[in-house]
């Protein structure tokens, strides 16, 4: 079975996002989810700029970043 680099990145992104939902701590969930979403952004770019994938995951990265920074200020 041959996988392209694009498919490998897509599978990694899917795995990391799924893994993030196993986290009990919300901060760790957001950090891991952000990593997965960044992988999905790369995946979307490699798919000849798949705008829905890039847009959605960029928005999620922004939301996660906002809440992580907000939580950091409250500590």
> Outline, from the CA principal axes?
flat
Structural class by secondary-structure content? mainly alpha
Q: Which value, in Å, is the CA radius of gyration?
A: 13 Å
Q: Beta fraction of the residues? A: under 5%
Instruction: Give the distance, in angstroms, between the N- and C-terminal Cα atoms.
Output: 49 Å
Q: How many separate structural domains?
A: 1
Uncertain ranges: none
Profile the largest sheet.
none
- Summarize model confidence as the mean pLDDT: 96
Number of E-state strands: 0
Helix content: over 70%
Please report the number of helical segments.
3
Give the helices and strands as they follow along the chain: HHH
Molecular structure report:
The radius of gyration is 13 Å and the shape is flat. The protein contains three helices and no strands. The chain has helices at residues 5-20, 26-46, 51-73. Helix 1 (5-20) packs antiparallel against helix 2 and helix 2 packs antiparallel against helix 3. The chain has one domain. With 75 residues, it is mostly helical. The longest helix is centred in the C-terminal third of the chain and has 23 residues, at 51-73. The model has no long low-confidence stretch (mean pLDDT 96). It is 80% helix and 0% strand.
